[in-house]
Amino acid sequence: STGAITGTPTAPGTYPFTITVIDANFGMATQTFQLTVGPAATLSISTASVSAGTVGAAYDFGLLASNAIPPLTWSETGNLPPGIQLMASSGILAGTPTTAGSYTFTVQVTDSTSAKAQATFTLVVTAPPLTIVTTSLPNGAIATAYSQTVQSSGGTNPITWSVSAGTLPAGLSLGATTGTISGTPSAAGSFTFTVKATDSSGVAAQQPFTVTIAGPPAPPAITLSGLPATSKPGDQPTVTITLASPYPLPITVTAALSISPNPGNSTDLMFSNGSRTTQITIQIGRASCRERV
Predict the structure, then answer these.
(1) What distance separates the 2 farthest-apart alpha carbons in the chain?
(2) pLDDT in tens, 82-135
(3) DSSP 52-85
(4) Of 53, 63, 188, 205, whose CB count within 10 A is highest?
(5) What is the DSSP string of 6-49?
């Protein structure tokens, strides 16, 4: 009643046919036609390439198929990046990549007629940009152990550390593989320097720092004991130098002895006044020292 030719061709070829139309008054007309049916389109994966990913960043990329009759089933073989998977029903590559690198894999799609198509892709995952996230370091003090680690983010391991400008405080050093500044400062002052981090691909990041090293604390009170009131000629008495508390640096005490003669009732010997100076060093962490003077 409509004259529409409808349906789904199932075989290719050329098909001649004649159509006749009759109206209500029995008028009639005839026309010959020829319909050519081409071969069925072939299922294919129309996506040519996939976008790159970044370590730690969410990834979502959909693959497309052409000339497919749903539903479709997707699968893969090869080497997907760690953290990425292919959704079987949608053809979406999704996840969060964890490792930088270049990953090659093959994807297959199957439609409802069991037709199949394959395509090979390479997904490149890059590391996030290398940055130094530590922006300041605490100050230190002479003779007090110091240890601080400069932290980085991104880049491709391993990371190598160096001082690219300025000078570290005397007594401190930077670990080339750890980024740890450690040691025992030996000089007071304000020190400005720049720390550089370089990853395995040669990408570098730098961060300036200023660290102030305070001078030593005031020395504790010192007492001397053991010095006799009198001594024979040639004697070397033993004395004890005592600190009120241990000190983080060596302390050298200079002792000046004044000697006055005491001849008693002797008139045969003549004596004169004299003096003697000696230095006694108390080592780091000790509170006393005994020495002959």
Answers:
(1) 178
(2) 999 999 999 999 999 999 899 999 999 999 989 999 999 999 999 899 999 999
(3) -EETTS-EEEE--EES--SS-EEEEEE-PPTTEE
(4) 53
(5) -----S-EEEEEEEEEE-TT--EEEEEEEEEEPPPPPPEE----
CA distance 44 to 72: 12
Distance between CA atoms of 125 and 154, rounded to whole angstroms?
Answer: 13
Residue 62 in tokens? 């959909």
CB atoms within 10 A of CB 163: 15
Q: Give the residue among 179, 201, 176, 169 at the shortest CA–CA distance from 133.
A: 179
**Which residue type is seen at 62?**
G
Rounded to 5 degrees, what are φ and ψ at 43?
-60, 135
CB 213 within 8 A of CB 188: yes
The tokens 């159509």 sit on which residue?
A: 19
Q: What residues contact residue 154 under an 8 Å CB cut-off, 6+ apart?
A: 127, 128, 129, 130, 131
- The C-alpha R_g of the chain, in whole angstroms, comes to 46
Spell out the residues 6+ positions from residue 225 whose beta carbon is closer than 8 angstroms to its own. 239, 240, 242
Running DSSP on this structure, what letter comes out for residue 217?
Answer: P
Whether the ω angle into residue 129 lies within 30 degrees of 0, i.e. cis, is no
Structure tokens, 118: 């394959």
Instruction: Report the candidate in 190, 100, 109 with the shortest Cα–Cα distance to residue 154.
Output: 100
Structure-token pair, residue 233: 């000629």
Q: Could you tell me how many residues make up the chain?
A: 293
Per-residue model confidence (pLDDT) at position 272: 56
Structure tokens at 38: 């081409």
DSSP summary character for residue 125 = E
